[in-house]
Write a structure and sequence with these properties.
This protein folds into two domains: 53-283, Penicillin-binding protein 2a (Domain 2) (Alpha-Beta Complex); 287-653, Beta-lactamase (3-Layer(aba) Sandwich). The chain is α+β, with helices and mostly antiparallel strands. Helix 11 packs across helix 13 (414-424).
Length: 654
């Protein structure tokens, strides 16, 4: 039986254990507090300031587009956007009013900014960034991308191109940014095309992605991103764009980013994924030759020029008129282009038109190859050819009299080829056009192009009212009716004819990437080779030579004595009527298309030049002189000027 003393001892023992446990508990609590407050206090104090963890996409610099000599045709310029995150905007009325004064905004735009900020201050979108104003005025003119200069007298920036004056919006906002919590100025990139209109159809242009684009690309693009819309910008979009990077960041309660150096783990270990810059694309174009092409047709409303290397398929120049300035397309000063009836955004080098008499070389070759004529075959031209009760007129209403094949080519006698077309038939003509000249098919260029049309009996049976009619063969023989080719197809076809029979795939890209061996460099690619007997080539080449260099030739006034070249004129009937056009346009639409395809020098040609003037008149008077200017420029400025004598071309003329 326990005594009182025993119970007291037991009680004291239990009390000691209780005191010990309590003491240990408070020791642990005190130790934890010491650890949290003293040892980790500073770290947790920094953690307590973290209000938001986010990430930003880092858009890569887009690859340059250059000509074959390194002239930059498309590059990037730095621009700046005013952004806001609504959650951090504490006094929207005051801050927006301040911004309105700084940027000299009108009340409408200021109210719109205010509305966007207030609307998004609460709810799940409060941390989403809003772009309030793109392209703040800073270094470049927002209208034409020209570099701005500072006027000490007025304390404003001014543009030497358009004459406008601006405040430096970026500098003003940055100097007051500490007064504008929630707002920020962020760097961006935009595309600038130094040549403006001169190469617009080739380089193309960019604009913002739309819903359709976003649906196709997944998360690769976000709203507001730019994408190539036409030309090289579109075709090489993935290569030029590069790869997007990513930057992680944390913000405090005021919305300010916290310096990563002051962040504890795990935030200090957050690493950015670097953006990978897009690869440059070098074109086969010669910028200065492109300028010469534009100058050669500057007096005409609409047309196109193609200059092709005869022995490689390289496109040295490709100009379409009228053009457009891609730097103006999406600027605040966007203006209407020329009359849309002239289709300024259409690359006419790659659009098909009736080729007129330039097509007669197909008919002549078919007649020789199939044995229907010899070079000495003579037809009489009284100025028309009567076929099944209808008169098919020659452009020379008085007639050419008796002409052989060479004279028919050089003088472009329509009657000779009407008769020949009737004998050959439309299907055989179509076969030679496709097989020997590549007409009716893609040329291989990296841009979107028309394939044209080379009609056959079957085509007419399907598409012409009443089906095929025998007279269609006569129209096809002189490049009229439903025959259509593009200026580039015509250049490629003639190149194959004069270079020994190699039908090259045409290319406008010299290389992709830098100069390293791994870069994708241009390699001439022969689609197929054609064979024409020498006894047929000689008269055909002689006819083309005399078209330019014989006094009776249709392009004699455009000859160059120092550089004898050869070629073929073309005048294609193309009357149109458009109800809403004014009288000047209606008069223009009544004119014929003017063509000339020439190659230089006439012996061992290096280049083929095609000049097409839409509703320009006659090929001999309009397009041939323009071709002469381009050939003169090429030899005077790109290689040693050739001092050639006419006897050097005796093999061609005999």
């Amino acid at each position: 039986m326990k005594t009182f003393r025993d119970e007291l001892v037991e009680y004291k023992t239990q009390f000691k254990w209780f005191i010990l446990i309590i003491s240990l508990f408070f020791a642990v609590i005190t130790g934890r507090f010491f650890y949290l407050q003293i040892i980790k206090g500073e770290e947790f104090e920094r953690l307590s300031t973290i209000n938001y963890i986010g990430k930003d996409r880092i858009l890569p610099r887009r690859g340059l587009i250059k000509d074959r000599f390194g002239e930059v045709l498309a590059r990037n310029i730095d621009t700046y956007n005013l952004t806001a995150i609504p959650h951090y905007v504490k006094e929207p009325d005051r801050e927006v009013a301040a911004l309105s004064n700084m940027l000299e905004l009108g009340s409408g735009e200021a109210m719109e900014i205010l509305f966007k900020v207030i609307e998004n201050r609460k709810g799940e979108n409060r941390f989403n960034k809003i772009v309030l104003k793109k392209n703040l005025v800073s270094t470049y003119c927002p209208y034409d991308k020209t570099g701005l200069l500072f006027d000490q007298q007025t304390k404003k920036m001014f543009c030497t191109e358009c004459g406008r004056r601006f405040i430096d919006e970026r500098a003003v906002i940055l100097s007051h940014l500490h007064e504008l919590p929630g707002f920020n100025v962020e760097a961006s990139l935009t595309r600038y095309y130094p040549p403006g209109e001169l190469t617009a159809h080739v380089t193309g242009y960019m604009n913002e992605v739309n819903k359709e684009d976003l649906g196709k690309t997944g998360d690769e693009y976000l709203s507001g991103d730019l994408t190539g819309r036409t030309g090289i910008e579109k075709y090489f979009e993935k290569i030029l764009r590069g790869l997007t990077g990513e930057e992680m960041f944390v913000k405090d309660a005021r919305g300010a980013r916290i310096n990563p150096a002051f962040l504890p783990e795990p935030f200090i270990s957050m690493k950015a994924v670097e953006a990978i810059e897009g690869k440059p694309v070098t074109l086969t174009l010669d910028f200065m030759l492109q300028a010469a092409a534009a100058e050669a047709i500057r007096n005409y409303k609409s047309g196109a020029v193609v200059v092709l290397e005869a022995n490689t398929g390289r496109i040295l120049a490709m100009y379409s008129k009228p053009s457009f300035n891609p730097n103006f397309l999406f600027s605040p000063g966007e203006t209407k282009n020329d009359n849309p009836i002239y289709s300024p955004k259409m690359n006419k080098s790659l659009v098909s038109y009736p080729p007129g008499s330039t097509y007669k070389i197909v008919t002549a070759l078919a007649g020789l190859m199939d044995g229907y004529i010899t070079p000495k075959t003579v037809f009489t031209c009284p100025g028309f050819y009567e076929f099944k009760g209808r008169k098919f007129k020659c452009y020379n209403r008085g007639g050419h009299g008796k002409v052989d094949l060479i004279e028919a080519i050089s003088q472009s006698c329509d009657v000779y080829f009407y008769k020949l077309g009737e004998i050959i038939g439309i299907d055989r003509l179509a076969g030679y056009a496709a097989d020997y000249f590549g007409f009716g098919a893609h040329t291989g260029i990296e841009l979107k192009e028309s394939v044209g049309r080379i009609p056959t009996k079957d085509w007419h049976d399907k598409h012409s009212i009443g089906g095929f009619q025998p007279g269609f063969s006569l129209n096809s023989a002189v490049g009229q009716g439903d025959v259509k080719v593009t200026p580039l197809q015509l250049a490629r076809g003639y190149a194959a004819f004069v270079n020994g029979g190699k039908l090259f795939k045409t290319k406008i890209v010299e290389k992709v990437g830098d100069d390293s061996p791994s870069g994708n460099h241009f390699i001439p690619e022969v689609e197929r080779e054609i064979s024409i007997p020498e006894e047929f080539m000689e008269p055909l080449l002689s006819g083309l030579f005399k078209a330019v260099n014989d006094k009776d030739g249709t392009a004699f006034e455009s000859r160059i004595k120092e550089i004898p070249f050869a070629g073929k004129t073309g005048t294609a009937e193309a009357k149109e009527f458009r109800k809403d056009a004014d009288q000047s346009v209606r008069d223009w639409l009544l004119l014929d298309h003017a063509w000339f395809v020439g190659y230089a020098p006439a012996k061992n040609p290096e280049i083929v030049v095609v000049v097409f003037i839409e509703h320009g008149g006659t090929g001999g008077k309009i397009s041939a002189p323009a071709t002469r200017k381009i050939i003169e420029y090429y030899y005077a400025n790109r290689i040693d000027f050739l001092e050639l004598e006419e006897e050097d071309f005796s093999e061609v003329t005999e």
